[in-house]
Amino acid sequence: MPSEVENMFSARESAWHGLGVITDDALTSSEAIIKAGLDWNVALKPLIAYDGVSSYNSGTLRNMIEVPDNYATVRDLDSSVLGVVGRRYTPIQNLDCFDFMDTIVDDSGAKYETAGSLYNGRVVWLLLNLNKEVGVDDDITKNYLLLTNSHDGSSSLKGLTTPIRVVCANTLRLAIDGKTNGFSFRHTSNLGGKVAQARSTLASALTYVDEFQVEMERLLDEEVNDERFEDIMSKVMPIPEPTLDNIKAVTRITNNRDTIKNLFYKPEFPTHTNTAWAFINATSNFEQWVSSIRGKSSRTEKIAQKTIAGTESPITQKVYSLL
Questions:
Q1: For the chain: N or C, fewer Cβ within 10 A?
Q2: Which pLDDT does position 281 carry in this prediction?
Q3: Residue 85 pairs with which residues in a beta bridge?
Q4: Distance CA 256, CA 26 (A)
Q5: Dist CA 76 CA 118 (whole Å)
């Protein structure tokens, strides 16, 4: 498929609106790794540099130089080079990621709702349903454990809980009172010794889910009148004084603010009107489903990429901090 999503599966079109191969239900790790196209390994290969080219009769000679303490990460599936890493780097295979997730949740039959690879295999992810929902009335948020791993040395192995509102598939990863909801391990050792630490962090992450429920109810009980709405928006999206040079930017910001305002005053559920929860969802809906996107990726693919990278809702985070 085009853009940055290389391969993936999605169960029942739930998380991220069904990108990739659609399955009738969530899958176990042994099923998911096949459906997601992640049944391959990565190996470290010596790195060689070429120093100039010289002619010799009809042939060509190239001077090869070994690059010390650096290696290429190479996928066995197609011999593609995924990245360049240092001597202390230890590959974490895709199968190891699935096994690790199964182990830390202590469930060999754990169900994965989506998994796949980005950027030609350089980044992979797994999304595990924690079967722990929070909600107010009919506004339900499902909670997932998201694991991401890079094979190009760009990031560590990371895991975190990701709440996704069912009504519009918005991810709402709020920084609630500094509560931790994830873990991160460098590629310098195997995962065997990390299980206890990950389980401890997962317990904290589940506490975060409980805190998320409390925070949802608090935000729903908190009134936001017209004056407060405009005050917060002026801090989050200030409109500069119009000039001949910035008129386009002023128009864009004004239109964006008007869009958020419309979403705020017409929430998905009438009982949420004029509440802080409606404000949070208005900005989240705007960021993930209304605002313009760059590049060739589809909007749903961009949401998946931003969720994996943890950059899906900067405006929403600012609004939340001010609320």
A1: N
A2: 93
A3: 71
A4: 37
A5: 17
Compute the distance between CA of residue 291 and CA of residue 73 in angstroms, rounded to an integer: 36
Q: How far apart are CA 115 and CA 5, in angstroms?
A: 11
Query: pLDDT tens, 131-153?
Result: 888 888 788 888 888 899 999 99
- CA distances 318 to 1, 272, 314, Å, are 34, 20, 6
| Helix, strand and coil percent figures for the chain, each rounded to 5 | 40, 30, 30
For residues 199 and 76, the model is more confident at 76
Give residue limits of the domains in the chain.
5-40+90-217, 221-322
If you search the block for the tokens 């980044």, which residue do you land on?
Answer: 123
DSSP state letter for 153:
S
Alpha carbon 283 to its chain centroid, in Å, reads 18
- Packing angle of the helix pair 314-322, 276-285 (nearest 10 deg): 160
| 280-292 pLDDT tens trace | 999 998 988 777 6
Edge to edge, what strands does the sheet with 81-86 contain? 42-56, 59-75, 81-86
Q: Would you place residue 170 in the very low, low, confident or very high pLDDT band (cuts 50, 70, 90)?
A: confident
Compute how many other C-beta atoms are within 10 angstroms of the C-beta atom of residue 39: 12
Query: How far, in Å, CA of 99 to CA of 92, rounded?
Result: 11
3-state secondary structure 182-238: EEEECCCCCCHHHHHHHHHHHHHHHHHHHHHHHHHHHHHHCECCHHHHHHHHHHHCC
Strand partners, 206: none
Q: Which of 54-63, 72-81, 188-197 has the lowest mean pLDDT?
A: 54-63
User: Any idea what DSSP says for residue 110?
Assistant: -
* Residue 17: C-alpha distances to residues 164, 231, 304 (Å): 11, 34, 10
* Cα 112 to Cα 146: distance, rounded to the nearest angstrom: 10
